[in-house]
Amino acid sequence: GAVVSQHPSWVICKSGTSVKIECRSLDFQATTMFWYRQFPKQSLMLMATSNEGSKATYEQGVEKDKFLINHASLTLSTLTVTSAHPEDSSFYICSASRTSVETQYFGPGTRLLVL
Amino acid sequence: LAKTTQPISMDSYEGQEVNITCSHNNIATNDYITWYQQFPSQGPRFIIQGYKTKVTNEVASLFIPADRKSSTLSLPRVSLSDTAVYYCLVLNSGGYQKVTFGTGTKLQVIP
User: Fold this and answer.
1) Does A107 touch chain B (CB under 8 A)?
2) What share of chain B in percent tops pLDDT 90?
3) Region at A53 (left for phi over 0; alpha for psi -120 to 50; beta for the rest)
């Protein structure tokens, strides 16, 4: 149990385009989903927290208009990187938990390369 | 938020028991300790979680002393496939959960 998937697993796009990443909890309902970014040889950095049906809460320094997060159902959250630039190239990882205080289960990650 | 401190790296030979210690001096009463394992280009995988004393599951044991200011993840008889980064997290059970990943410990298992 507690399986989280992400799609796509990797994506290459041109600078200026938008990219959508999906995060799904496959065998449980996730009230809360988290989005992280990880640069090479660095730790995970929390970008935002989303609760189903509510607006996401963004961490300091993360542009909410650039990283659009939607959590429309208890099993799906999406992260859209708008007008992507090469510096947005990173490994994006989502996690999901049944409630905001329970254990987080992580997806496999999405590798984004912006050319 | 309780800050955690772990060794940046450790080496171990195959078949040995590995103990990774994490310090969390300002852990609060409602906080609990969770360990994750991460392989390159993969999301972290939940290993074990505990509040006090000892917790054991099929892959690891977690030792937490009475003062809870530290915890030790114990991996019995490691294999090459256990080479990964291990993260210790202190999470709050009483409210909004904000997760801060520290540097983690890079475990290298040597043949």
Assistant:
1) yes
2) 77
3) left
Q: Is A97 in contact with B97 (Cβ distance < 8 A)?
A: yes
The confidence score (pLDDT) of residue B94 equals 58
pLDDT at A89: 97
Q: Provide the token pair at B108.
A: 């290298």
Q: What's the pLDDT tens digit per position in B16-32?
A: 999 999 999 988 888 88
Task: Look at residue A36 in the predicted model and tell me its pLDDT.
Answer: 96
Asked whether the beta carbons of residue B101 and residue A4 sit closer than 8 angstroms, the reply is: no
Q: Name beta bridge partners: A91.
A: A38, A111
Pair B70, B7: CB distance under 8 Å: no
Q: Is there a contact between B2 and B27 (Cβ–Cβ < 8 Å)?
A: yes
Chain A residues in contact with B42 (beta carbon < 8 A): 108-109
- The region of weakest confidence among A20-34, A36-50, A54-68, A93-107 is A93-107
Bridge pairing between strands A10-13 and A110-114: parallel
Measured distance CA(A70)–CA(A23) in Å, rounded:
10
Question: Is the model more confident about B84 or about B93?
Answer: B84
- Return the closest-CA partner of residue B1 out of B44, B33, B31: B31
